[in-house]
Design a protein that fits this description.
With 412 residues, the protein is of the alpha/beta class. The chain has helices at 12-23, 49-52, 58-61, 133-142, 156-167, 183-186, 188-200, 304-320, 324-332, 393-400, and strands spanning 4-8, 29-34, 73-76, 80-84, 89-92, 97-99, 102-105, 109-111, 127-128, 148-152, 171-176, 204-207, 211-216, 220-225, 230-232, 235-238, 242-244, 260-261, 269-270, 273-274, 278-280, 285-288, 296-298, 340-345, 348-354, 361-367, 374-380, 383-390. It has a five-stranded parallel sheet with strand order 3-2-1-7-21, covered by helices on one side. A five-stranded parallel sheet has the order 9-16-10-11-12, covered by helices on one side. It has a five-stranded antiparallel sheet with strand order 24-25-28-27-26.
Length: 412
Amino acid sequence: MTHRVVIAGAGLAGLRTAESLRTHGFAGEVIIIGDEVHLPYNRPPLSKEALGAEGITHEALAFRHKPNVSDVDWRLGRQVTSSDLAATSVTLDDGEIIEADAIVAATGVRPRRLTLEGPTFTAASGHHIVRTIEDANALRADLQPGARLVVLGAGFIGCEVAATARKLGVDVTCAAYDPAPMLRPLGPELANFLQRFHETHGVAFRLGVGVTGLTGSDRVDGVDLADGSHLNADVVVEAVGSVCNTEWLAGQDLDLADGVLTDNALRPIGIGGPLDSVAVVGDLARYPNPLFDDVARRVEHWNIPTETGKRAGAVLAAKLAGDPVNYETVIANEFKPMPAFWSDQYDLRIQSFGLPGAATDVQLLEGSWDADEVVVGYLRDGVLMGVVGVGLLKSVMALRTMIGKPFETVAN
């Protein structure tokens, strides 16, 4: 009997899941459904080096596919609108119902949007987000020398856009509710360090204040802040976090409070326990990682789509092979991925491993807050939870092997 797996989401996580299914012996039909018209491509450069170039193309960012997925049925420009997980079926935006033996949730996230008074949100009005190739190309066209850009939000994407825009000769202000940029993942010391670096490159910050609206008619000409002040703007970028694309999973007794709660095998947890015929991957998956503790967390880092895709493919292939003993063996093999991300801002390379946000103690391990390079350790109860380096990549890589282990620091 030929089995079928439907993967909802045509990004990196969906691709890696399909490759893993094939690697682990699944020879059945694989259908991947994605709302964009593009095959999977690399998104992080859209706010960094690709944004700095003119004419971003899919060819330049597309992921290579392993030969073992050459027979995958790609349904692009389509959207999964609902599902029946008990019946392992999904419904598409045109009403088509696709039945399967297993479903993979790989629909990822979308940019969170603010509800603001002012011009209609369109690229033509100078009001942007950065998620797709089309978004980045539209924004790039507005980043002309001398233009006034206001970035709403001061997380990594917002700061990467700010750095890229400054290199293009754009006047940049970042407005954010947090008291420091990139504060939540990095802590106040490193956040303040990076803010000073941005300021030396001409970025202005308006922090600790909310945004009440945009001004202008057909096109934005400014941003109103909650303290009554006003920022002139020719271009506005919203970079205020993300929203999980889980609407199509609603009404099925899953915990969708933050992505999808799963077990360590990436099976969503229903009322009766894990759903064997469903897997959750990429930015949606909220799972426990024994490398750190038993707390289920959702991690939006660049390597997680690959790691979760590999895990889900192995688990589902074992399930569909019909060998219960091997299936239980695969599940029992603990999934302990090392979260990792990087950020390029000006000539700085920021590299992170682990879970800095899970720490309770932040310590400078190498370098100086007055220099251009530092290595920062993030600890909890004497255990190294994460490490972030600005430069000094060799030191960061060496400390990577200590994450999840007791760690002694020396006062710097």
